[in-house]
Each structure stands twice: as structure tokens, then as C-alpha cells.
Amino acid sequence: xxxxxxxxxxxxxxxxxxxxxxxxxxxxxxxxxxxxxxxxxxxxxxxxxxxxxxxxxxxxxxxxxxxxxxxxxxxxxxxxxxxxxxxxxxxxxxxxxxxxxxxxxxxxxxxxxxxxxxxxxxxxxxxxxxxxxxxxxxxxxxxxxxxxxxxxxxxxxxxxxxxxxxxxxxxxxxxxxxxxxxxxxxxxxxxxxxxxxxxxxxxxxxx
Length: 207
What we know:
Structural class: alpha+beta
Order of helices and strands: EHHHEEHHEHHHE
């Protein structure tokens, strides 16, 4: 898990106007223009939150920089593993809401069905070869509102997961160090899907 995660929300309509094989490149070049110096990258979003690329023509996408991580994908993978471990100890309604919320973001019941591995069902190009990592996640705009609703259902009851976390995750390698670390990251994901749903945009995680 030496990957980094660059999480972007984007207007799928804007991306549809770009040939499939160029969509990742266009998103990458819009978010991180090659003609900007290091001062731009250190000044904007250094404390986390949404970062918008420069220029009015770039108002169709934004990057979310997590307050609780350093950009590594590892904390997200660890949180997803923690949920897989504890989910059967959660109440049925909370488990269903959390499953709907986290599936395809940081957890997959069946990893082989993760749409990111196939370029989001063809919306993005699949990996060209084994040296080019597949996308870490793809959540199209039509799926985001459901995740936002699931988050609204789950958020008030996160404390109920404290016991399951202690029983299945606490002290184990490859899991969040504390329950608070787990819930802090999960709440950031809640903020992400809420904002993407408000705009009607999709989410994509670039490695």
C-alpha cells in the first residue's frame, strides 16, 4: 500500500466531451497544471478540504485533501479493512447504511467487482499494463446521492461501532490505531459524498 490517493470530484458531463482514453489525462492536467510552481501546491489546501484548480475554466473539478491523512491511500485501505472486520457485529440497519455508504469508496464486498479496476464500466480507460495502477475508486454521479442518503442514516449512530471496533480491530496490524481515527476519516468521506451529491458530480480516486 505505497500508493497515494488523489480524490477528485468532477462534472461527468464535462468529461463526456473528452475521448475516453484522454479523460484521466485531462483531469490530471486540469487539477495539477504543469506550469505552476511548487508554491501553488504547498499554499493551496495545505490544511485539507476542497482545492480548486486555478482559472475559471477549471471550475468543473476539485480535489479533496483529507485533514486526517498525509495523502497516502493506506489509511483508507485500513479503514475499509476495519469495516469488513466489524460489520457483522453492527446492528442490521447501521450495517446496511454503512455498506451502502462505503461500498466502492474504501470497502468492497467483492473486490473483483470494483468498477475502478475496469475504468468505471468504461467511463475511464482501464489500466494499459501492469505497470500502470488502476484507479482506486470510481463513483459515478448517479451513485453519489444514494451514498449521501446512506451517510445521513449512518452518521448519528457511529458511536454504536465503538464496541465492534474494540472487539475486532483494536490492536491489530493493518487497522486504524483508534476508534476515533476510524470515525474521523469516515466523517470526512461523509463530507465528500455530501458535497458531490449537492453538485450532481462523480468521484474518482487517482493513484
